[in-house]
From TrEMBL, chain A:
Keywords: Cytoplasm, Glycosyltransferase, Metal-binding, Transferase, tRNA processing, Zinc
Catalyzed chemical reaction(s): guanosine(34) in tRNA + queuine = queuosine(34) in tRNA + guanine
Positions of Zn(2+) binding: C309, C311, C314, H340
GO BP annotations, alphabetical order: tRNA modification
Binding site for substrate: D97, S98, G99, G100, F101, D151, Q194, G221
Organism this protein belongs to: Planoprotostelium fungivorum
Name the UniProt record assigns to this protein: Queuine tRNA-ribosyltransferase catalytic subunit 1
From TrEMBL, chain B:
Lineage: Eukaryota, Amoebozoa, Evosea, Variosea, Cavosteliida
Subunit organization: Heterodimer of a catalytic subunit and an accessory subunit.
Annotated ranges, domain tRNA-guanine(15) transglycosylase-like: 137-403
Binding locations of Zn(2+): C339, C341, C344, H370
UniProt source species: Planoprotostelium fungivorum
Protein name, as recorded: Queuine tRNA-ribosyltransferase accessory subunit 2
Length: 394, 408
């Protein structure tokens, strides 16, 4: 790390097991223990949970979405209110995305030019452009501890010259982002490795970003429908080539098997809407998979969701009660299941971390696989990936 | 096995208005007093629940409310499948001690008395447009509005209804009865009385000590009188004034209360569900009603509004504010300065305004919390005013400030 570059984080590696690592990530608002999962609070809130309840699941970092927050309340209001921490009374860390990905995925008409992401305003239909400079400006107003560079996202199922173009453009845009970023002493700008499923392009992009010596790096453009066999190999390669002393963030990944495998491959940070979104549909995550609470079998099941879970749902409510809330479409069901699912994710990550520190990650992984796949039907990609991480699943 | 018994002890009266203490005590089979397990000061407000918890209230939020309100009303059908009593099912009662807000010790001794009392009724406490419709000896399912919505039609016989109330094991039980809207034929009103008395007798065969009899009879003076007298003859622990909040205006409301109260004994508690605006409440309290329940504070929140009225004549504040209004988007004040609710202690008007604009669930949570808190604060102030003989002034000040210009 060069001495004169402003950064607002410090990474301390606590332990290693094979490719995996346990670290302490010092950020402006709290120290995070990695590997970690970061819940998504798109509009500055997570599914009806109070900030205190989010703290209670031992969460030190949540995401906000720049596209949504830039739209409402908008950068001017955000700035005047003193940023998102202040607005939502959240005392720990925040991370914001660039806004580009959401635009491309939410707005049919968005397309990408050298200038930026061109889109039609959802308000009046006028043509607008999200440039790297604008993304930085909005994210500086939001004031998150980690902000993401605007990248040229292509779907992982895209092939050919478009992938290469996107990779080069991502590198050109990172310089514009660094240039436009006004608060490098308080906010950490992460670059995003692109390059689709092409290992050479990934390598080129990664090298280009590392040359810029950014505070942290993300692996982008995955979990978009590519085969899992490709997915883990890209993660593995990027994690192997990224610098040891910087945090590695795998974007948009949050299924428990993916979390385990990719932690074993050396990833530090993950985010995903899955645990809170699935809670809204009445699904609870448990060690053996999922519980779909609307099913009648739960109407007379008076156990907690999980005997060992310490979340407010498990400590107070029966499955039968949660079933009745889900069936009656009560908002409370979403609140309680979100609290549980986030606790589940945090517990899983803590389990992975502790086993790295204690030197028994392989046993942890085996136990996890046994519970999730009791019939020995663990997918072959996961076996392959874990094997490459030095773990032989029986 | 100890049984629950409900007692009400009067404290101070001012005119007809009165304060008192509602106790849930346990007695043995011979009726000997074992201990007091819950106590509630009246006049008071029972938070309505959907499926066993006030809407949007997780257990930590609910625990905070116990300082102010320790009763919740529940419609009985939802939890009918459960075999072990309602307290266990919705995680209050014994289980509620498992979860304490951070840094708070286990409840002990006197503090345990503030644990939530559960009031069972067959009427949906948060939807008074649905009325308890009793047809012959069967309770038709029209009574359970959201059961109808979620599970389709189902009928419950009186026998099943009685058994259900027994199994649920609530602290207070409202007898099943037949509600009628203000404008129906007097034949129907008379019938509502007969049916309600009939079912009350059935319920009293298996429950004693904690059954409240419901007085029906709609807007017919004779029917109301008969219903009140007949119910008063029975072994009930208190009275529910039925069919209120169903189309009558304020003077009609008062008229119906006046027909009933002279015929029921003063030493038992009087519950009047269905009316909820402060105006209606003040009127009913001045006539001698003790316990209220309505969807009013939750409903206000659903419109994006926060009640902030003041009962102090020297404080000038509007009745409510509409937080959907963009003028609040930069407002860094709490919803109500000085309010001790969770929402006001932790968040700003700007945040609530943002949450409303983005249709986020947390907006409902924070508004429900604030509105219920403020509303319960209003009840506390009302009790205090009766206690010092100032209720009349209290009422007049409030009406002059907020109702003289037909505000609301
Ligand atoms: Zn749990
Ligand atoms: Zn408040």
């Amino acid at each position: 790390m060069s001495e004169d570059k402003p950064v607002a984080l410090r990474l301390e590696i606590v332990a290693r097991w094979g490719k995996a690592r346990a670290t302490l990530l010092h950020l402006p608002h709290a120290i995070c223990e990695t590997p970690m999962f970061m819940p998504v609070g798109t509009q500055g809130t997570i599914k009806g949970l109070t900030s205190e309840q989010v703290e209670d699941v031992h969460c030190n970092l949540i995401l906000g979405n720049t596209y949504h927050l830039g739209h409402r309340p908008g950068p001017e209001v955000m700035k005047e209110l003193g940023g998102l921490h202040q607005l939502m009374n959240w005392k720990r860390n925040l991370l914001t995305d660039s806004g580009g990905f959401q635009m491309v995925s939410l707005l049919q008409l968005a397309n990408i030019t050298e200038q930026g992401v061109v889109f039609r305003s959802p308000h009046d239909g006028s043509e607008m452009v999200l440039t790297p400079e604008m993304s930085m400006q909005i994210q500086n107003c939001i004031g998150a501890d980690i902000m993401m560079a605007l990248d040229d996202v292509v779907s992982t199922v895209t092939t050919g010259p478009r992938v290469e173009e996107a990779m080069h453009r991502t590198l050109r845009w990172i310089d514009r982002c660094v240039e436009a970023h006004k608060r490098p002493h308080e906010q950490n700008l992460f670059g995003i490795v692109q390059g689709g499923l092409d290992m050479d392009l990934r390598s080129q992009c990664l090298k280009g970003l590392v040359e810029r010596d950014l505070p942290g790096y993300a692996i982008g453009g995955l979990s978009g429908g590519e085969s899992k066999h490709h997915f883990w190999r890209v993660v593995d390669k990027c994690a192997a080539e990224l610098p040891e002393n910087k945090p590695r963030y795998l974007m948009g990944v949050g299924y428990s098997l993916d979390l385990l495998v990719c932690s074993c491959l050396g990833v530090d940070m993950f985010d995903c809407v899955y645990p809170s979104r699935t809670a809204r549909f009445g699904v609870a995550l448990v060690k053996t998979g999922t519980l779909i609470l609307k099913h009648r079998e739960f109407s007379k099941d008076f156990r907690p969701l999980d005997d060992e879970c310490q979340c407010m749902a498990c400590r107070n409510y029966t499955r039968a009660y949660l079933h009745s809330l889900v069936v009656q479409k009560e908002q409370l069901a979403g609140q309680l299941l979100t609290a549980h699912n986030l606790t589940y994710q945090m517990d899983l990550m803590r389990g992975i971390r502790n086993s790295i520190i204690e030197g028994n990650l392989d046993r942890f992984a085996q136990k996890f696989i046994d519970l999730q796949f009791p019939n020995g039907d663990c997918p072959s990609w996961a076996r392959d990936a874990l094997k490459s991480a030095g773990i032989d699943i029986q | 096995m100890p049984m629950r018994k409900v007692e009400w002890t009067p404290s101070v009266t001012e005119g007809e208005a009165r304060t008192g203490c509602l106790s849930i005590v346990r007695v043995d089979e011979q009726g000997n007093h074992i201990d007091r397990i819950k106590k509630i000061d009246t006049p008071c407000f029972f938070l309505g629940s959907r499926a066993g918890a006030p809407p949007n209230f997780t257990v930590d939020i609910w625990n905070e409310f116990k300082k102010k309100c320790n009763a919740v009303q529940i419609e009985a059908e939802t939890i009918s499948q459960f075999g072990r009593g309602i307290h266990d099912f919705i995680a209050v009662g014994e289980k509620q001690n498992n979860f304490r807000p951070r840094g708070k010790p286990e409840a002990t001794g006197e503090e345990r008395l503030t644990e939530t009392a559960i009031y069972l009724s067959f009427r949906d406490p948060l939807n008074y447009n649905s009325i308890c419709n009793v047809d012959g000896l069967a309770v038709s399912n029209d009574a359970f509005s959201f059961v109808v919505r979620q599970r389709g039609k189902m009928k419950l016989t009186t026998h099943q209804g009685v058994k259900l109330l027994k199994d649920l094991d609530g602290d207070l039980i409202e007898s099943i009865s037949m509600d009628v809207p203000y404008h129906v034929t007097s034949k129907k009103m008379r019938r509502s009385v007969d049916v309600s008395i009939h079912i009350l007798d059935k319920i009293l065969e298996s429950n004693t000590g904690n059954v409240l009899g419901v007085i029906q009879g709609g807007s017919d003076e004779r029917s109301r009188t008969v219903s009140a007298k007949e119910t008063a003859k029975r072994n009930v622990c208190g009275f529910v004034l039925g069919s209120f909040g169903l189309g009558e205006d304020l003077s009609q409301q008062s008229q119906m209360i006046r027909w009933i109260l002279p015929h029921i004994p003063a030493e038992k508690v009087r519950f009047i569900p269905g009316i909820g605006t402060p105006l209606q409440i003040l009127e009913a309290v001045s006539l001698g009603c003790d316990v209220f329940n309505s969807d009013y504070p939750h409903l206000i929140g659903e419109y994006g509004q926060a009640i902030i009225f003041s009962t102090d004549a020297s404080v000038d504040r509007p009745y409510k504010i509409n937080l959907r209004d963009r003028k609040f988007q930069l407002d860094q004040e709490p919803i109500l300065k000085g309010c001790t609710c969770y929402g006001c202690q932790n968040h700003t008007r700007a945040y609530v305004c943002h949450l409303l604009a983005t249709h986020e669930m947390l907006a409902n949570v924070l508004l429900s919390v604030h509105n219920c808190w403020h509303y319960l604060e209003f009840f506390r102030e009302m009790r205090e005013s009766i206690g010092r003989g100032g209720f009349n002034r209290f009422k007049e000040t409030f009406l002059e400030r907020y109702y003289s210009k037909a505000e609301e």
